[in-house]
Every structure is written in C-alpha cells, then in structure tokens.
Sequence to fold (399 residues):
Amino acid sequence: MSELRTILCLASFHKGHEFIREAKREGWRVYLLTSESLRGAEWPSEALDDIFFMPDIDKVWNRADTIRAVSYMARSRKIDRIAALDDFDVETAAALREHLRVPGMGETTARYFRDKLAMRLKARAAGIAMPEFTAVINHDDLREFMRTVPGPWLLKPRLQASALGIFKINHPDELWPRLEQLGDDASFHVLERFIPGQVFHVDSIISEKKPVFAIAARYGAPPLDVMHGGGIFTSAICEHGSDDERALIVANAAVLRAMGHVRGASHTEFIKAVDGTFHFLETSARVGGANIMDLVQAATGLNLWAEWAKVELQEAAYKVHPTCKEYAGLLISLARQEWPDLSVFSDKEVVLRIAKRHHVGLVWHSRSFARVEELERRYVAQVRRDFHASQPAPAKATD
Fold:
C-alpha cells in the first residue's frame, strides 16, 4: 500500500474550503496553516487532519518566522505539496517550496503572479499588448514617461490585490506629492497609462502549462470605479462564440504561457479599449475573489476550487469536464440594511443569495445570454434604489 501523501494549505484569509475538501476526497492528508486572527473561523474540520495558526498583523505573517515554523512542523510531518489559497500567500508558499524543496511554483515564477512590475516586464518581452508603464524608481525615468506617454496615469501598488491602493494621476504635479507621502515605499509601485474601456476577466485551470479550462466574463463597472467610487460590483459571462470571448481566451493563454504557470488556477484581467483592442492588466495564481467562483459554477457546473485541487494533486495531465456551457451573472453591493431581505429577488433564475452583513449578493443563471443581461440591468437599478450604500475604499485587503 502506498504511503499517504500530505498537502499543506496556506490561507491567511478565510477561503478555499472546497479546495480542502477535494484534497481530502482525493485521498491526501490535509494540513491548514492560517492566521491566528482566524482561530474562531469555521473551517471544514471534517476534511482537515490538523490546523496550525501563525501570528499575524492584518493577516500578514512574518516570512522568516513562517519558514521556521513550517520547517519545525516538517520534522515530524512529511510535506509533499504546498498550496497558496490566497493571493497574499503565493510568495510565502513559493519560499516554503524553495526552502523545503517541495515541487511546485518557485519564487521566480511566483513573482510574475504577484508583482505588477515583474508581470508587465515579462508580458512586454512576450509581445503581449498592455498599457505603457514604468517602474517607480528613477525620477528621470518617471519624468520622461509622463512627457512621452499621454495622461492620465495610474499609480499601482506592485504587490496588492484587486484595485486596492490605486491612485489616478491626472497631471505630473500630482505624482510627486504622492511619492513623497509614500516615502521609502514608493518603489513598491508602478506607473501605468490609464486606458478607458470595459474590463474583462478570464478564469482558468492550468495543467502541464496549458489552460484546460478557461471562461471569459466582463465586469459591469470597472473594479477600480467600484472600489474607489462606491459603485455596485457586477460580472457576467461573455457570449459564447463571440469575438470578445475568442480574443480573450487567446490572450489569456498567451499571458499564462509567458508567465510560466505550470499547474493550478488563475484569474487574469484585460481591458478593451475604445478601438476594440484588448490590453493585459494583471494576472494571478489563484481563484478569482468576490464570488467569481460562484459565477463560474452557475454557468458551467464546475467548482474552481475543487478543480484546482484535482489538478494540483494529479501526477499527469488533467482534463476538465464542465457539465454545461451556459450563462450567469453576479452582483455584490454594500447595503444600508444590516441584513437585507434578499427574498425580493424572486426570479427563478436566481441560484444564490449571498448572506453577509450589510451586503447584497446575488448569482443568477440562464441558458440565454440576453436574459442574464436583462436581469443584470434590473437588479442594478433595484439595488441602487432600495439597498445600496457606499464607504471609502479600504487601505488594506479584508475578508
């Protein structure tokens, strides 16, 4: 009988339950390393062989202490795989793999999926279309960039997730006070030309360097506008066979190939400029957040967390088998009410009402692309009228 193999899951945020359950279903021993501040969270204990906690400040772990702690754990527990369940765990997992010599994504490749400057340089070298950009390091380079590249520009943190910490710079004189405010942290940013347009995302499962599943969707309002303008977040699956879908699937494959993703999940974003061309914005080695997994599952029958676990633990190329190829929409908004009454969204197409304090969350499904879009327009209007609230963008990632 073969020895039971062990996977260590890193989750500084409360997510990835279905990954954990699927790893257990696949016959692996499953350990979870999570934040001390999440000690009281409901984890899938039935699928965990053990759980460990790291001291954290705002879900951030000390890298050196984490390596020491896991190395100590490994004295008596052999670790065969390490999985990072959140964007902020990708680099820590890579450092642990390098230190313990565990197979999987190492630190160099992980940098392409976390560092917005590294991924842009890599994509540019591969000839992938994207907004012009420059590192925020040499001030003469910054002056030349703003002189030759039309504004406005976006000042983006290199290592944040989603639209956190992004500032729009309309004039060169606006940049220098912002950099002064950032101080020694200024070099952890990238300056990029702002291209107006519609933002899309492609969510993928990769096996042996190839996307074996990819689905394209478009956001309603751009995430940057939602984060900083207090809007309503929506996303909907692109029309199958459309020019947009075909272009996005091809562009996504090119990005993942350039970054060297071998095995796992990815969420990649593009913007469609007014001239119809797609430009790469950023990628990641994780399942998309903000309930995008539920959107994909409603349209395809696939749970991305479970598929990621399967491909992560396979010894050979893995094939994904969606149960359907239909359409779905997603809406999330802050709400004025503490616990909004979501029963008012009573259409038969609604497949998920997301119960969360001071939030409205919905997922709906249809075989009809037009019906999904019709419901999106109606729900956005209804939520804006009866529920919507807004607040300033958070300075740091939250659960």
Summary: The first helix runs from residue 17 to 25. The chain has three domains: 6-104, 132-193, 197-386. The radius of gyration is 21 Å. Residues 116 and 158 are 5 Å apart (CA to CA).
